[in-house]
Every structure is written in C-alpha cells, then in structure tokens.
Amino acid sequence: MEINGELVNEEVRYADLGLSQALMQAIQKKGYVQATPVQGGAIPYFMEYRDVIAKAPTGTGKTFAFGIPMVEHIDPESTDVLGLVLAPTRELAIQIRDELRDLCAFKEGVRSVCLYGGQPIDKQITQLKKRPQIVVATPGRLMDHVKRRTLRLDKVETVVLDEADRMLDMGFIRDVTRILDLMPQRRNLGLFSATISREVMDISWVYQRDPVEITVRADEQNKPDITQYRLDVDRNEKVDTMVRLMEIGGYDRVIAFCNTKNMTDRLSGLLRMRNISCEAIHGDIQQRVREKTLQKFREGKLRVLAATDVAARGLDIDDVDAVFNYDVPDENEYYIHRIGRTGRARRHGVAYSLVSSITEGIRLDDIRKNTGNEIRTVKLDAHGELTDVEKQ
Question: Of all residues in the chain, what percent carry a pLDDT higher than 90?
Fold first, then answer.
C-alpha cells in the first residue's frame, strides 16, 4: 500500500484503530480481526475528517474503510442526515446499506436508508420521515428527493463516492457536482475506486482539500487467487462445455457473464433445459425481481446467475466458485470486474472464458496483454481433463 506516494507495509488490526466498543462488537460479530490494507490506510484519516482518495482492487474491503469511521462519527441523538454515500447502481447501494447496518448493530439510534430508482418513491419518503442520519443513494434518485424537498443535505458532514470512476463514466457527473454543492457543512469527501480516471481527478481537484492519496496495488497479499482459462469452442457448444466444466469442477455457485440482455435470458433458459437452476439479472428486469434473484443466489437456491455487466461491480457475494465469460467482454476493465466475483475473501477462484470467434480471440488476447493477467489456453479432453493447448 502507498500513502501519498510512500510505501507502507505495516499490518493493522481493528483493535489498534481506537474504535468504540459498539463498533468493535459489530466487527467481532462478523469474525474480522485484521484490517485490509485500504481499511488500515483510510480509517485513521477518515476519523480525523480528512479528504481521502483511495484506489484499491475490487473485493479489498472499501465499504468498511469508509463505513467504520462514518458510523463512529454519527450522533444517535441527531435527526439530521450527517453521512452520505453515493453509488452508481442500485445493487451496490443496497449492499453498502446492508454493510452499514451490520456496523450499526450495537450502536443504538443510528438509522440508515437506501434511495434508488425502480422502487416506489412514496415508500422511500416514509423511510425518510424516520429521520435517518446516513443515506446511501444513487445520484438520480437522490436528486429526485432533493427536488421534492423530502430530503435535506445542508447538515451532511461526510460524503463518499463509491465506485467513483464507474459513477462518473455512467454520466452522473452533473448530478454529483450538484449534490456536492448542496452541502455547505461538508467536512470531508472520500473518493473510492478501482481505477482513478480523469473525471475522478477533476472532482478531487474541485472538491477536496489536500487529500490523502491511498493506493492499494494488486500484489500477492490482496490480489485475488484466481486461475484463469481460455477455451476455444464452437458457438453451439458453449452451453454444453460450460455444463461439463461445472460438473467436473463440482461448482455449486457460478456467475456467467454475457454482453447482452437477450443472451442472459437465452442462457438461463438453455441451462434450465439441462436441469440446472439459473436465473438472469440485467437492466430490463424489475428491481424487486432482481433483488429476489440475488437473494436466492446468495442463499444457494440458484446454481447459476446469468448476468450482464450491471452485476459485475459491487455485489456482496463472497463465495462464488467460478465465473464464466460466456461472452468475452467488450472492455478490458469489465474482465477485471467480472472475474473479481470469484476468489474473494482469500478463497481460490476459477474463471473460464469461452471463445467462439476470431473477434473474441483477439479481444481476449488484448485483455491478457493490457491487464497482465495469466490466462491459460486449454482444451477439454475426452477424460474431462484440462490440458494446455500450447504444450501439444
């Protein structure tokens, strides 16, 4: 880990961070002892209300890095919104809200609410009448509430933009700047991201003062342990190849990524025809149905989740056995976030990319070259063994 360009290798335990008994109880209930590098780096500065810009790989515990100090700072007696977290997608916002609630388990009186599109706004207005101190929201729905005057941000002290690069890339920059301009009492701003884009730096230059820059590189300590394979197969053999690999590997929980909504629906249907429980998740599916599907997957009631890249970021699913790139992703960054769904929490993970065209092959070669990932080209022999093609 680097802090302001200087290498810092010391390990940090939660017990060494000077946290309250209520927060320590909540952390111990989760079974955590050792803080991740981004947590050990960011929490002390957040506790001092310093501005922070943190770059860290997916799955390294960014939510607790800002969530722990945010919950510590909340006055349970207050009836004002004091902490605000902005997230690019509904799924990520819900996940953050759930993790913050876990942290509040022993801090009585701290209330949080999650605001996002696709849910009836009247229900959210009712929740806001309970005067939560922490709001987690997508930018568009937050602006809806501001315009309706159902939410005030003038007392907010801490603001966090999670997956900041993704949020700004999705076109939320105007909403984000309007929101930041509505908080005259803001004491600190945290920008958390897997990559630091030009747009993220623009926000930092305008809205942060002398920020602490924390960079956690994907080294051997925090880099996910993921074995990556490439298999060249005919398009009409992709489903059967995937099923065979699942049976050989004994995978009970799998995410299969497709590039289009239609393909996720088609794949889920083809897998169900082969008696494999699968449901699709993409942007055209109603939010309540998506949440129900994700819950079934978390509970082990679905073996496969077929997803577009809307599900590639921020899902709180730590025990995915394998990821399949049923379609090779269109962008290098999507590949990183897709395979990052497996190999989390220091478990071993496996990722398979099924290549069925020259275009897909060129794209995967480009991904391998530009990301530095080791992707083994293999074939599945008659005995169910994966053998390296290069060694034939």
Answer: 59
Q: What is the pLDDT of residue 5?
A: 65
Sign of CA dihedral 59, 87, 45, 209: positive
Instruction: Write the secondary structure of 235-289 as one string of H (helix), E (strand) and C (coil).
Output: HHHHHHHHHHHHHHHCCCCEEEECCCHHHHHHHHHHHHHCCCCEEEECCCCCHHH
348 secondary structure, DSSP code: E
| Cβ neighbour number for residue 348 with a 10 Å cutoff | 11
Query: Positive or negative, the Cα torsion across 367, 369, 375, 380?
Result: positive
Q: Enumerate residues 6+ apart whose C-beta is below 8 A from 229.
A: 350, 351, 352, 353, 375, 376, 377, 378, 386
* Selection from 306, 316, 362 nearest residue 340 by Cα: 316
Question: pLDDT for 335-372, tens place per residue?
Answer: 887 888 787 655 678 999 999 999 999 999 998 887 77
pLDDT at 97: 93
> Mean pLDDT across the chain, nearest whole number?
88
Angle at 171 between CA 170 and CA 173, to 5 degrees: 120
- Name the token pair of 336: 């990183």
Local structure of 202: helix, strand or coil? helix
Per-residue tokens: 110: 């701290």
Q: Concatenated DSSP letters for 291-303?
A: HHHHHHHHTTS-S
DSSP state letter for 362: H
Output b/e per residue, 118-143; b: 16+ Cβ within 10 A.
Answer: ebeeeebeeebeeebbbbbbbbebbb
- Report the Cα 221 to chain-centroid distance in Å: 19
Is the whole model's pTM more than 0.70, yes or no?
no
Neighbours of 161 (CB within 10 A): 30
